[in-house]
Each structure stands twice: as C-alpha cells, then as structure tokens.
Amino acid sequence: ILEVSVTTNTPVPQMQLHTIFTELHIQVCAKAPAQEQYSSQNLAEIVHCFIALGEAPASGELMKFFLSQHGDGARAIAWGPLALIRAVVSADEPRMNIRTIYLAIRVVKNTLSDTRFKVRMAILRIIGQLALSGYQDRIKGWGLKYVSVQLTLSTYKLTNHREGFNQRELEEKMVHKVTMDTVKIITSSVSGITDEFWVRLLCYIMETEYTEALAPICISLTNLAERQLHAKDAEASVASKGRHGPHWRLGALQVLMSSPYKGEGRGIAMLNLLRTLSQSIAPSMADMWELEIPLLVKYLEEHTEFTWNQKTWEDKLIQFLRNSLKKTRGSNWSLRLSKELNNQIESFDSPSLEKGFLYRALGFTLATGLEADKVEMLLLELLYKTDYGNDFDREGVVLCFGLCARGQVKTVLNVLRDFEERIQESELSWQIGAWRKDHPWRRETVKSALMVMYSCVASYCHPQMLLTHVDSPITAKIIHHYSSSCQDVCLKMAFMKSVVQVANAIKNIKDLEDFQFAQKMTLTGIIMATIKAEPTDSLVSPVRTMAMEALSHLSNLKPFYSTEENNELMDISIRSVISLQPPAEDNESIQTLYANAKHALEQLMESLMQRQLDPKGLQEMVHLLEKWILSEKEGEREKAMSLHLHLMHIYVQSVGVRIPLKLGQFGTLVGLIAPCTCDSHRRTRLASMGVLSSLLDLHASQTCSSWGPSKELERAKCKEDLQGLDVEKIFSASSRIAKVACVQFNCDEVVSLMQKLCENIGAMDLQHDKASVTWIVTFLQMRAKELEDKVAEILGAILAQLPVVDHREARRPLIEGILLLAHYHQETVLTALLRQPLPMESHLTEVWLAVAENVPFARTMLRGLMGRLQSSFTPRAHATSKADIWRQAAVDPLMTLCTIHLLVQKTAVDDKLLELFPDLTYALLLQLRWGASGSLQLLFGRLSNEQLVQSLEEQNVWALLQGSSTFLQGVGLLARLCMRSMEGYRQRLLELVLRGMDSDILSCRVSSTAVCVEVRLGFMSDPALYQEELLKPTVSMLEKGADQEDEALRVLSLRALGNMALGAPKKVRRYRKLLLEKCLDSLREPMNTSVASEGMEALAKILAELREGDLGPSFGTICEQCRAFFDNESELLRFKAFVLFGKLAKVVRISKKHFFKEEVKKAWIPLMLHCQDPCSDAAEACMATMFQCVHFWGWKALESSWGRRDSSTADEMTVFQTTLCSILTQKKPAVLYSFLLETMTYVHSNLSRIRIAACNLAGTIMKQMSAHRLRKLDFPALRNSLQELQLDSDPGVRRAALETLKILDTCSQHPLLASPGGFC
C-alpha cells in the first residue's frame, strides 16, 4: 500500500500517519510485549515501510515521531528508532529533503549520551551512513568527535577488562569493530577532515594498548594522507599538522614496527603510512624510503608471525634507521630523534618487544649524535629515570649504553663516571633511592647494572678504543663494583656476565698482536673464589655455570694460564660440578641448571685443554678426573666418565695421529677406564665403552694398524651387551672387549695397563675389582708368554695390591694370574715372590698354597726354590737375558727356606715328589745356619721312615744341628744316618756333595766337606765314588780345601783325606804324595791346634795303609814334625803326636830301622816323661808308643822289664827307667849322660807332673851314672835348678826336687869325686 502511495504520489492521510508510525514502531522496539513482537520475521518489511514513509511528503512527520518517542523518555527503546533512521538515511531517495536529514541528526544527537552498546553501534553506523550518503559536512563536528571518543573508550575498556571471557567484553569488541569501520569510511570518503581528528588518530597509534586497532588506523591514516597529498593544497594538508613533530612520528612508527604482526599485521600498514608521510617527516629521506620501505614490506609479506625472525627484523629496522640518519648527516636530526625516543620510553610497558627495540634504537641514535654534552645529558637522564629493579629496563639501558659506546665511548665512560660520583655520597649513606621515590634503588642492583654497562661498552666500542680502555677503567670498575658489594647471587651473575662480555670483546679483535690483558689473573682469582664458595651438593643458581663460562672465555686471552694454573682451574671446576645430585624429573628448572652446569664444565675443560693438546695435557686432564672416575658414588662416576668421553672426542679430533702417545700412556689410560665397563650405572658403562673405543682407534691410527670387520662387529656387540642389566653378560662383554683390545698392546703398554688395573683394585666396589681382575687374567692368558722382560713389573704391581683385595672372587683370579706367569717365567716369579719384605704374609701364603694344590707345579717350584738355595753356593754366570738377571738376583735364604717349608708341609707326597728328597735334604743341610733344621725335620717326617726319624731323635741330631759348636758334628751324624737308611739316594747325594765342595761359598764347602768326612757308611766308603771315577775330583777339591785359610774347612778336608784310608784304602798309595804333603803342611802350623791335630790324625790313618817304602823322604819329616809336638801345650796335639809316632814305629821296616832308632833316642826322654802327662789320653798314648819303640833299643832285658804288668804303672815306670839307666850305664854311658842333661831341661816345664817326672828321672839317672860321668856334671848348676824348685807352688814338685837334690848331694860326696887322683 505504502509503495503504491509513493508510486502514485498519493500521500497517506495525515490523520493515519501517527497510528501507522506507532504500530510499526512497536514491531522494532525491544521492550514491546512478546505477543506483539514480530520483528524477527517482518523486520525487513518494516524497514521498507519506514523507507516508503520517509520518502513520502510525510518524511518530516516521521522524524518528528522519532523525536517525540525519544523525548517521551523512552530511552530503553532508543536503538530501534536509530536503526530505522539509519535505514531511512541509507535509502537512495533523491526526494529526501534536507529537513528530514536535519531532523534525523537531531534525533541521533539526543541519544549520544546513551552508553548502551547497541545504541553506540547504531549511532556509529548512522555517522558512517551519513558520510557514505554525501552528508560529510553534517558530521564534521559532533560526528568525528563521537567517533574519536568511542575509539578511545572501547580501546580502554578492552585493554582494562577483567580476566576471563564475559558478555561485556564481547559487546565492547562489537562496538570497537563498528568504530573502526566508521573510521575507515570517514577517512576514505571525507575531504577536508579536521586537524583535530587527524591528530587524534595519530596519537591513538602511540597511546593505545589495543594492538588490533593499529593496523586499521594506520591504513586509514595512509588513505587519508594519500588523498590529502593529491589535493591541490598539499602543503596545507593535515599530514603535516599536529602537535607531534616528524621526529616523534618516525620514532613512534619505528618502535611499533618492531612487532609487525601484532594487530592484524600492523607492520605493513605502518610502513605504508611511513612511506606516505616521508615528505612531511623528512624530505631528505623520502627518496631512500621509496627504495627501502618496499623491501621491508616484501620481507613481512614473505613471512608470517610463525616464520619470521625477531632479531633479523630488528636488524633490518636498525639498518633502515642508520640509512635514514645518514641522509641528515651534519644536522641535529639524530639528537632530536634520540630525545623523542627517550621521551617515549615510559610510554611502553616492561617487558615488551617495542620497548626493547626502543632502547636499541635509542642507543644507536645517540651514537651518531654530534654534540657530546647533549648526549651526556640524555644518557645521564636515562640513568636516573631507569628502574634498576626491573630486569627488562636495566638490560635495556645496558644495551643502550653499549650501542652508544660504538660511536661515543669516551662520552659513555664519562657519563658512567659522573653517575658513580653523584651516587657515591648516597651510596655511603645507604640512600641510593633518594632520586627515585617510586622505584627505590637497591645498592647491589645498581652496582650489577654498572658492571654490565661497562662490559657492554667493551662489547660494542671500537677495537682500538677497547684496547685503550679495557684494563682501566672498564675492567677495573667492574672489579671495584663487585668487590665493594655484598656479592649476592644477582651481583655474581652480573659480574660473570661482564667478564664474559669483556673477554669476548677482546677475543673478537682481529689484530691483537701481543696484547696482554692485565686484569686477567685478578678476574680469575675472583671467579675461582666464587666457584669454591658454591655448595658442591646442591644447585640453586646459575652462578657456577656462568663462572665456568667466564673462565672458558678468559682462557683464550693472553697471558695464558700456566700448566699448574690450568690444572688448578680444572680441578676446582670439576669439584664444583661432579658431586651435584641429579635433580628430580619433575623439577624442570633445576634440571636446566644441572644440564647447563655440566655443559659449562665440558666447555671449560675443552677451552683449557686447547693450550695443552698433547699427550702430557691429556694425561693431566685424566689425572684430574681419575679420583672421580674411581669414586664410590655412582653419580660422580657417571659425570666424570661422560666428561672424559667428551674431552677424549675433542682430543682425537684435534690431535689425531700428529702427536703419538707417550710410551705406556695408552695402557695407563685404558687401565683406568676398563673396570668401568662393568659399572652398575648403564650410562657409565656406555661412556667408558666410548672412551675405550676412542683410545683404541687413536692408538690404531698412530700405530698404523687397523680394525678388521670382525673386530668392529665384536665391539658393536659388546657395546650392545653393556646396555643390558644381566651382570653375567656385562662381564662377558667386558672380557671380550679385553680380548679384542689385547692385540693392540705392545709389551710396555701391557705393563702400564696391568699396573693401572692393579693400582685401582679396591678403590671402588667388588664389581669394579672383578672387572679389573677379568682384564688382568685375560691379558695374561693371551700375552703371558711374550712378557719375559716385563714379568717382574707386572708381578710387582699384582703383589703390591694383593693384600688389599678382600674378596676371594677377585683375589683368587689374581693368584691364578701369578701362577700363570710362573708357568712361563718361573725364575722371575720366584725372585719377585721371595724378595717381598714379608714373604709369609697371608696373601703370599695363599699364593704358595695355591701352588701346593697342584702337585706337579709344586714340584717344579720346589726345584726352582732349591736351585735358588744352591745357586748361592755356585759361581754366578754372566746374565744373557733379563730372565737370567732375575734368576741370579740375590734373595734372602731365610725367605726361600720358609717357602720350601710351607710347600713341603702342604704339598701331597707322591713318588715324583720323593725324587726331590736328596736335593731337598742337601739344600736344607747347607742352610742349617739359617735355621733350616725345622724344615729338614719336617722333610724327614714326611718320608714315612719311622726308623730314621727315631734314630735322629735318639741321637739328638736336631739339637746338635742348632748349636754353633756342634753344628758340624750334627751334619756328620745326619749324613751317616741318612746313608744307612736311604741307600737309594746315595748316588744323587754324592753328586750334590761334590758340587757343593766346588762352590765359591765357604759355608757350602764347609758343610759339603763335613758330609764327605763320613767314613763308615759315608760317601768316601761308597763304591760309586771310585767306580765312577769321582775320586779324583773329590781328592782335588779336598786338596784345595786343605790349603784354605778357613780353619774348619782345612780340618774337615784333612779329616776327609784321612778317612780316605778307611773308605778307599786301595787308593791311598795312588794319592800318597798328595796326602802326605797336605798332612805335613798342616803340621807346619803348630799354632793352629785343630789343623795340626787333624793333620796328625789323618797321617795316622794314612800310615796304616802305606808301607815303609811309600813314605820316602816324608818319613823323616813326619818324625821330626811329630817330635816337635811332644812338648806342646795342647793336650790334643801331644796325644795326636804320640799316636802318630806309634804309627811310625809300626811302619818301620829294615830300611828305615836305623834311622828311626835314632829318632827314638831323640824322642825317648819326652816319651818317658810324658808317660806321666797330666792328660790321661796323652799319657796312655805315650806309654803305648814307648812300648812300640822299646824294641828299637835292641835289648831284650829292657823289653822284658817293660813287659811286666804285675805292678802299678808308677812302679813299672820306675823299674823300667832303672833298668834302662843300668843298661845305658853299661853300654852307652854317654847316652845316659845326655839323657840327664835333657831331663834337667824339663824341670822348668809348664806342666807340674812333667816337672815331677823330670826330677824323678834325673834322680834315677844320677843313681845309675858312673863316677866318671858324675865328675863331668855341673853340680852347682844342677843344685841351683833343683833348689829353685823348692819355691814351686806344687808340693809334689817340691818333694820330688828335694829327693833329687838329696841324690845330687849324695853323688857329689862320692869318694871318687873327692879324691884328686881318682879314676877317670
């Protein structure tokens, strides 16, 4: 109907309009009754109705109706009419008169104060529709202002809403969206827009925190600016107007562009705006911007917020800024830009990308400033207004100062000095926060900031300027601020960061030449003290990590650390990290700290190693790690091994084959790592396998050897087995690794490996000890035969560690290894075992017990031990090998005896072992002086010969052997009993005795000769002695023995030679000359009683087997030597001499009878006197000899007188003497006279009984002498001699002398002597 009305130009009656308006209005009012609301179905039709009414002449009435509805206070339904008004305004109806638009705007203005979101959106849409419909002039005032207010209001509400999604936020977003659409419409359609709206939009870019709005606003401003620039009055365009100048615009847009993808991609929009405003900002930059900005736009278009790189983008912006400022060189443009940037700092929140870039841009622009004093003012202002408690702002200022130092280093240092001086007073009074009431400064915070500022200055300033200022003031100030603070965690971190930056700055200088960083050692000392102060069992801050990083960087600067300093740094750093406990899996922050600390330690060790990339440096590094690799704590071992693996890789990659390892170093390194292949921790096992692989590969490359495919495959399988948990498989894999590695070792490396493996036994747990032993045994099994020259060193290492091996599982394989060495190198092993300080310690006893368990091997070892005992009695041969040296090495016989004793005691007896009996007996016999009697007694006890054992006990042989004075007697007795009871061993014993007699060792010759002395069942009586032509060497050795200086040896040799007459009488005549000569030689030394005695006894035995003619000239010599001993002070010599003279009497036959008769006359007085010898044996022997010699007088009467035995010996001797004197008086008075004179010489004998006998014999002779012979006597002299005896201490001498004196007096008074003419 309404359309027809409009079409036919038939207006609706005036009276019906109000009713129609009211009914239609109800349909779109939100507060209408529910039954009357049909707007959901009929809204579009209702709108058409209102449009039709608005086009009609009644349009004015329609607006009046809307005005009346709102004027009636129907505010709740204001959005409905507004929606209808917008629809009416949007109708493209030329008949719409200005009056209608005016009334419509009036209606809208009446609702501007309504804050409901629907009303606000409706108003904004109407404003936009008015602009689109060509009524731009109608909205320039109130409309633009309303849009600006809504833009600000909605942005504020969106940026300050409460957390969580709610209805109001959604409504506000709808309002903001409509506002932005309206702005877009206005800026694209309105010409001659007001300056105020332009300024509001431009300020909005800087002031808003709602980033979604920036891109649309920028686009709108760009469009507006482009339209204005194309206008006729370009110079008067709004683009060049506003309260903010070009420096502000460039700075603001540049900072906001640092986050280009915020707010629907504002970066591109701002770049386009900047390009559009280039003429109004800086005409000198316009051409450059035309080229540069499209490139920046292209970069953003090619990326998204997920693919772009923040630093790359910021670098592009900075480069853009640099190029821009170059166009204004010579002006104060950069300084004014710096000021604007400085002013904008507080406009951004912290932290934010925009503010971070702002600090960077500010630093760069200040660096290009020409007026240093103004730059100083800006920097100083920045220092004072910075909140140092805010990490972001503090770091931003630090960066700003660093960048500024690139072109203004002196200015920056002056500002920092000035700032320090200004705050010094407050620092001392603890009022640093006096300038900042809103953000009080903490003392440590400011100091940490200053330290980092100085280091940042070092990082960015020109290299030549850095070398001038790095020691002082830069580093000196850093040290000062750190040392003068409380050194909390933050300050320590700042200090470490500063050191790293300074060190990096110096390092990055290309032409350092000989620059020496003077403050290096001071910094190092502070860092080391910091690391030491960190707890070793917990990790609560990254201080130690940063400290190690600082040391890593300092290590590359001159002066370089010495080797000792390097090692100290490594040691301190390792201690700081190695004991840290691994963090729990749910504590990610501590896990990060833990991982960083380990990585920093690796980097530090790597840096320090760079100065010592040689075998010595490698060894030093391993030495530092060794105590931790051998730690009892699983975690410490794992970290140490991982570090070792890392450094080993570095070493191999850096050195390779250029520098070969030192001799023995390879074995030492492998020996340290090998036991860890059986570690309880899987990562430790795998790391150790990695280290071993690196070492083996390194060694193979340096020795030009290669791994075959099979060995590589075996290594891979071993590594796989080490990852499991099966202990048996792990040990099997370790053993297989040892077999694979063994072929790579030369003998010297094997020794060093063994020494290291042994050294570390007991350092950890049983599992590691078993692994060490496994490697030792494996290598010995494969290489023992080749190690002849190295056995002593290997055995020394094993024996040194064996006492500390507590577990049998590890100790027993070691002992088996020793036995394996002994199997191939018995002499060397014997020497090493016997030369131990205490060879019978429990661990060595266990070794010998293991030997005893294997009877054949024990027999072999016993032979070796006996050889050691016997070798000491034989000449030492020239050593031709190292084994000979060890075989001939001196060992303590006592230790050898103890070992033999143990083996004899513990080894099972069998026939083969009994074959050693003669050798054992002889060997022990020669060692009796070392206390071997107990071992010898044990040996005889194990023979199962009870008769022999009993005989030895009954005859007290063992006691005799233990006495020094009865030793030789015991030896002879033992030999005699052995020969009686053990006939089967005579031949072997004889060979051993003969060998001993030829020894260079006196004691051996003495003992062997003592055995040889035995006569009855002894060696000399054995037919084998001469049947096998052993007599000649035996006699020869006895001959030598008789010529020796040693008394015992001479005595025994003479005795043995004498016993030859008993044991081999048929051979005496053959060797008579030698026998007689040696015996006579012994008689020529009367001062040596035992030798002379033995010589006479031997002569007595020999004479029994010789005939008169066999003696030759020796007969007279024997007689003479024999008579010389008749009056010897030694009873033994007198006895032996009398016996020997008797033997001579028996030998005499016809040819020597006359000679011996004269000898008898010479010996007669001593013989008669010594029949009264105080020694009964000598007296008896003397009487026996006299009896043998009586017949040489040739007087039967004398023989018959001696033969009477019916009276006492004294009476018999008196009768014999009387008879002899009587016969001599008659037949040989001269002989009797000489006898008297000889007898008188004995009155001065040392023996009292001889003096008595001499007195008695002199009396008897004087009684029988003729007067003629008495006259020749010197009676005064005789009397004086006899009178002197009256003073003798022995009463018997005095009595005998008195009786003889009486006889002398009687003879002197003989009548014939008194007559002068007596007979002659």
From TrEMBL:
SUPFAM superfamilies: ARM repeat (SSF48371)
GO cellular component: cytoplasm
Key words of the record: Repeat
Keyword Repeat in record: yes
Maestro-like HEAT-repeats domain mapped to chain residues: 636-862
InterPro entries: ARM-like, ARM-type_fold, HEAT_Maestro, HEAT_MROH2B-like, Maestro-like_HEAT, Maestro_heat-like_prot
Residues of the MROH2B-like HEAT-repeats domain: 1-611
Record-annotated Maestro/Maestro-like HEAT-repeats domain positions: 1035-1304
Record's protein name: Maestro heat like repeat family member 2A
